[in-house]
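Lab notebook: predicted structure, single chain.

Context: the supervisor wants predicted structures on file for every construct in the current expression panel, including those that have not yet been purified. This is the next one on the list. No modifications to the sequence; it matches the entry in the shared construct table.
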Amino acid sequence: MNIKIISEDDYGGAFLKNVIAQLKNKKMIGNITVIASKPMRPLCNFKLDRILKSFDASCDKIIIILDSDGPQNYKSRYANIERHVPDTLKTPVEIILTDYEIEEWICISKNIKWKHSKPSDELKLKFGYIKSSLPKYAAELDFDKLGKNCKSFKAFLDVLTSASVNIEKSICQ
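Prediction complete. Output recorded below exactly as produced.
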């Protein structure tokens, strides 16, 4: 299965490609190839429409994974993204929002709590984290913890495993 990813920034796209490689190495997903990723900032703009149209019919699935910047923003952010998905699109689109930001996957994996800050701020305090280092953290994720404690990771894994199952079913039929 060939997928394309739309993420917050270039580092997010590279991070997600690395996560998929780790999941494949652990045999948690089937043969999925990320054939492209694009950053999409700010959260709601007409660039998303153009990106989706350019990706349409060139892959098997498009995954949009963006930050909510707080659970209180989830519904409005989801609605803002959803309204930019053209009805005429042939390629299935999956929208996944993190509660705060993708760095929460790292924090959850490392048992790091964030209360009055963003997950990336906690990583900066504890490890001197900088955004450009995000892709290397894919190797440090604890998929068991994420599968039990992280809604956005579970959604991401579900999209990837359903993609694998759908391909295998079509090959077997």
